[in-house]
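Q: Is it fine to ask for two folds in a single conversation?
A: Yes, each is treated on its own. Send the first.
Q: Here.
A: Result:
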Amino acid sequence: MSAKKTEIEIYDTTLRDGAQSRGINFSLEDKVRITKRLDDFGVHFIEAGWPDSNPTDGEYFKRIKKHKIKNARIVAFGRTRAKGRTCAKDATIQALLRAEPDALTIFGKSWDLQAEQVLKVSLKENLKIISDTVKYLKKKGFFVLYDAEHFFDGYISNAGYAVDTIMAAADAGADRIVLCDTNGGSLPSFIAALVCEAVSKTGAVIGVHAHNDSELAVANTLAAVEAGATHVHGTINGYGERAGNANLCSIIPNLMLKMNFKCIPKKNLARLRELARFVCELANVPMPGNLPYVGDYAFTHKAGAHMDAMKKMAHSYEHIKPLLVGGSTGTVVSDVSGRSNVIELAGQLGIDITGDAHKRTVRAVLKELKELGYGGYRFEGAEGSFELLVRKHLGVRKEFFSLEGFRVVVDKRASEKIYSEATIRIEVPDGKEFMVAEGNGPVDALDNALKKALLRFYPSLGEMRLIDYKVRVLDERDGTAASVRVLITSTDGKGVWGTVGVSENVIQASWKALVDSIEYKLLKDGL
């Protein structure tokens, strides 16, 4: 094990490169919530998007300024200036400036063939484009990272020219030079050799950005660090185009636990699994159970010989203690680690359930969490539902209303529009309420009817609105009869929270999440 204590910068590109993964579409609220989690976790840079590529990314940079980001630099991503234009007349460059991020990442061509055949510029002109762009952005006062796109393929094609491109960026004042294995085809030994050369020739801080097309993105990143890179790119759960990007959920613990590098705050490493699952839920994709460190099966043992050995020597079939990354051994139910997780999550929500006085409550919460988990519930991204569960077992969850029944009608008429109407009967403080409301869909109609019935008693519900709605099929083998998990994100203009519901019926699952969302809002209001 290395004796080094160098700090490695973590650059997260989940919201940009990760969002390019097939099947992942982050909403604006998703991006803001993930940003805040990544910042709390302790990453150094959060690449949030390309401001002029889509409305969501453009709005994000306005919205994120309203939130206090404590640890990370928020980064906007873009290309070098276009051929034949000055930076002052380039729309993409000017959009980056208007976004007013904490840092800018600019990618340029390091492969001679890409410069000549894609950009249609001479090799000399390509070097000037790189230099002009970096100099311009530095003069504007920005922290600039230069992504050397296709650097490793470019080196194979024309080694001297590939090095010239990063020298152009370094000489122009780039704060970080990032070598990109854009096609994901390089081997660790090759990565290490070129990182060594880049460190030696540029004298700059060198980073690495690896793709996983050869199943080597994590290995390539670690090889780069051993060779002198001190800045690494990656995504949570390895999301990204094609086969994905380097997985930060493997890179970070490997750097800290196996290579003895400083990285994120040590105490935050135990929240790694929680972060991975949170991003997974907002991405609305299943999490592979066999993901190293954070997957459900990462520390689960099935073979009889393994289980027998584990009883005699706990670490005989585990390369680290699972608790270090927020996991637990799967051969037996881990009461200790389970209780710790419950106490930690409750503490993050401002509920203190430490000490002997709360042991019974913690056990009861843990028992119900396991029962609900078996039924498909997940509370990552659903902190509202989790807090209500804890408060129920503390005996302080208030019932603001109770359901007598509801009916939802979806009617397709002659026009293209589908008509949705919900009828609801609930018991409220002074009797019963019967209400009918329409909506864009059955869930929206239910939400409207419930709020309409409650507004007279709880006027603050008028501040509340649903901003995101996700449905996850839990077992696709059951087809249309499968259970579904619904995750709802709500806001009242002051805060954002998530709630969850599970059922074989999507309307019932949605109802459970809606009720939790409203109860959580009323709880927050101190009613």
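Q: Second one now.
A: Result:
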Amino acid sequence: MTKILVIEDEAEVRDNIQEILELEDFETIVAPNGRIGVTLAKAQVPDLIICDVMMPELDGYGVLKELRQDAITATIPLIFLTAKAENSDLRQGMTLGADDYLTKPFTLAELRRAIATRLEKKAAVVLHYTNQIKNLGAKLEHLTYYDSLTNLPNQRLLRERFNQVKTQADSQKQQVAVLLISLDQFISLTSSLGHTDTEVLLKAVSQRLVNQIKPVEDDIDTVARLDMAQFAILLKPISCKQDAANVAQTILDVLSQPLLLSDREVFITSSIGIAFSLAAFSNLDNLISQAEVAMRHTKQGEGNGYEFYTTEMTADFDNRFTLAADLYHALEREEFLLFYQPQVDLKTGQIFSTEALVRWQHPERGLISPAEFIPLAEETGLIIPLGEWVLQTACAQAKAWQAAHSVPLQVAVNLSARQFSQPDLTKKIVRVLIETGLEPSLLNLELTESILIADVEAANKTLNELNAVGIQIAIDDFGIGYSSLSYLQKFSFHTLKIDQSFVRNITNNPGNIAITTAIIEMAHRLNLKVLAEGVETESELEFLYQHQCDAIQGYLFSPPKPAAELTRLLKAGQQLQQRK
């Protein structure tokens, strides 16, 4: 039954209204003044209030103001009763939130119409809010099971789907497989892309994954997003490992295709870990953990690949966890040192540059290979302070050699993807050059081609800044990445380093002969200097000399040496014997 509160100080008017309302089957509450009326409204929350304007102590305006300030009574419709109909009075009431006015004396029809209108509008408001609540409930339900950015299933829904797949696999005596996909170098990529383009990138990656993983009939394949740059794929029951391997390879191929973001091409790669087991013994949390171990094992290499989980990986992962903890303190404990490998000009036979190579002298494990700790430094972000230390130390050493031998000796320093993507990279490098007193032209920064093509526009901007300062740029490990020399014409650099895999035993490999010869010829046409890495034999050296390669480095001339040993080599004036 609809409940109406009547607040009226005149007893005769109040009784008449109450009698009329009760005849209309309304439940009626009455209050002889404004103060009692406010108390009753808050206590019984009526569906409608009829209130006289002119009352002693607390008038109708005061009643309305108090009701609208209370969350419980703020939305109750209120009809004013007034003996005046001045516009100023009406405006005052409407400003405070009155819903209607009845001017005394009023007829029964006018009262009925006013009440009906207010109750209809209240019902419409209630319906509106009810629908809003339902919609919010539906959205909340959706957010409970789906990622808000990509609209992919989240881990909660993945868990429910897993239970379905597990039941299906149990009945078919097949296996359950989970693929964990992580985008490589994601932190470096996001720092150059910015927030908006990063979200566009993640949506595009999600769509590519969904396009490849489509449900077939009653089979269930699920693509889910687990965190910022990790996705999981739950496959329908499989019979053999190769089924999962085929899916993984397809994903790698699809994700490696360039993306166009804000009119610039962006290249991404991914690392995939695969875990599977007999359904009867499967547990989603265990499978995801195992797939993550396999994925991280993939990242230890070059990434852009997939691996199956093995129990040996867990021990390796534990070892890496311990090593990562030690790495955190290694810089402050001064456990790093630099080795330098000479780079030799083939025309003069003289050392013109040295490549600075960082080593870690672990207090218990001894000398640790960069292949083991550099990926860890990348993952943990320690590559930034470590890279700054390498740059500072190498530039200071190059300046010291120049002062001691009166010979301008270049120093080459490798930059990682995360270092290169720093927005203030050029400023940091210039500061180091000023502090050490090294000429910019004597610093040669080595970058892999994959770093450049990850974000062409951002890479070009940074390269132009470095070139403007006078710093030299070299492309390292050329030939093993994704791009051609013609593609790299988009970038400003000075030296091309041929990867050692093409140099090794080159005279017995026709394919490498053709590739290396083509690289040298094309580089020279572009006015680039060519340096061959990993030269270990006289036959390799002779081939490079005959094909006008500009420079070499490798164990044939000298392995990487500590600064003191290289200083002795420089004093001795060691050089390559000249060819005729």
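Q: Anything structural to flag on that second result?
A: Two points. The two ends are 112 Å apart (CA to CA). The first strand starts at residue 3 and ends at 7.
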